[in-house]
Design goal:
Elements (H helix, E strand, L loop, with lengths): L5 E7 L4 E7 L5 E5 L2 E6 L3 H10 L10 H14 L4
Antiparallel strand pairs: 1-2, 2-3, 3-4
Helix pairs in contact: 1-2
């Protein structure tokens, strides 16, 4: 079975765990709170969401953990979490 590579960044809050998960093969970007889906984007929206908070190093198409962490922090403030 082929394993699809993904990058996942996690932040532990007082009462919840928040994750940003990016699938490199499909470009899907998900925000999860305690493993429940909160937000989900597909290209090109996922790329724009990443680039808007992390800069245009790869135009959001190949994020690293620092870029996903910046997105996660931005989402935390938008969702009024933390």
């Amino acid at each position: 079975m082929l394993r699809i590579p993904s990058l996942r960044v996690t932040a532990q809050l007082a009462d919840a765990e928040l994750c940003a998960e990016y699938c490199a093969q499909t470009g899907r970007l998900r925000i999860l709170k305690d493993d429940a889906l909160v937000r989900e984007w597909f290209p090109p929206n996922s790329w724009m969401a990443i680039a808007s908070v992390a800069g245009a190093r790869n135009w959001g198409t190949r994020p690293d953990s620092n870029e996903l962490r910046a997105l996660l922090e931005s989402q935390m403030s938008l969702l009024h979490i933390g």
